[in-house]
Amino acid sequence: MHVSLVHYLIVSAILFSLGLFGVITRKNAILVLMGIELILNSANINFVAFARYGGLDFNGQAFAVFVIILAAAEAAIALAIILNIYKRFKSVNVDEINSLKE
Length: 102
Prior knowledge:
Elements: H1 5-25, H2 29-53, H3 59-89
Helix pairs in contact: 1-2, 2-3
């Protein structure tokens, strides 16, 4: 069996759908972040697949590495924000945190 571009796009679409479902339906902020990570990973799969099959040489891999660095920075900052929210409100549920001004 030969793995083609369509196979990569199907896996990427499934990951994107699961990530979007996680972002929309979850109330826990950590699970929302995990959904965002799935969406970013689906973009990485697209970059690498189009670089291999679309003739982009190494541009797709360079974009994928950039997205991985961006995701690591996003995870570090978001987890610091979530820890501060938990310390202040004793909850990480997005619905319960409605007043951030004070």
